[in-house]
Amino acid sequence: MVRGLAPSLMIAGACAAAAVLCFVSPTRAQTADDRRCLQCHAQERIATDPVEDLRARVRLSAGEPPPPRADQSKLYVTPDMLRESVHAGVACAACHADAVELPHAARLGEVNCTSCHAAAADEYIQGVHAEAAARGMKDAPRCADCHGGHDVRRKSDPKSRTYPLNVIKVCGDCHSQHVGAAYHEGDGRLRVSQYLDSVHGRAVTKAGLIVAATCADCHGHHAIRRSDDVRSSVHHTRVPLTCGRCHVGIAESFAGSVHSEAVIREAKRE
């Protein structure tokens, strides 16, 4: 089963979304419970309080290590952040099931995004990101790495991480760090640089054209596959169809060319 996040401290685990929101109507009890959560988590100081102060607010098992400072910033959650999220109305405990009883444990379990987003999860496990996670790569992206945590917004929202003008930064921030034999793509920095210098990249970053091709438009969203996988949208036999989704007539023009005949012959061999 695909999980939303790696284990995190306290309520730092994020209620990450895939593409479709699972709406849960809040009851009075849920609203009251959320207010109890926010009594601590809506205080800005929670992100900077000494570890000893945080320990006093949670159930801490004997010998359990203190929280990493990097995780502590995720503990700060404002009502506005939740209200403006696609998960507005979804109770905290709907995602953080082990935080029903307060004070909750110091380390909460992973958020299971698949309980609502099964279709997106099915796509994700077919892709290279899930493959990397299965190999134990710590930087393999989970739901929240791309969609955000408590501040997940609709793709159409200019503040969303997956908005066309923002998604290339989300992808680029990770892939620009991909250097070495462990990464199938080779030098990720070069790939990101090539895109930013391309007509598509300049259309997004310089002209602000939200119709210009981003990483996801060509490579896909959740079921991203290697370029040598015949099911991949960027496999050389499928590139004309991928380009044709934006460029009217390109696929038909290519289909009538000598190059198309060669691609078809090769595809049959594969």
Low-confidence parts: 5-30
How does the major sheet shape up?
Answer: 2 strands, antiparallel
**Given the structure, what is the number of helices?**
15
Rg, Å, rounded: 22 Å
Q: What are the secondary-structure elements, in order, as H or E? A: EHHHHHEHHHHHHHHHH
Distance between the termini: 31 Å
Let me know the average pLDDT: 83
Secondary-structure class: mainly alpha
Shape from CA axes?
elongated
Q: In what order do the strands lie side by side in the largest sheet?
A: 1-2
Provide the helix percentage: 40-55%
Number of strands: 2
Q: Please indicate the percent range of residues in DSSP E strands (runs of 2 or more).
A: under 5%
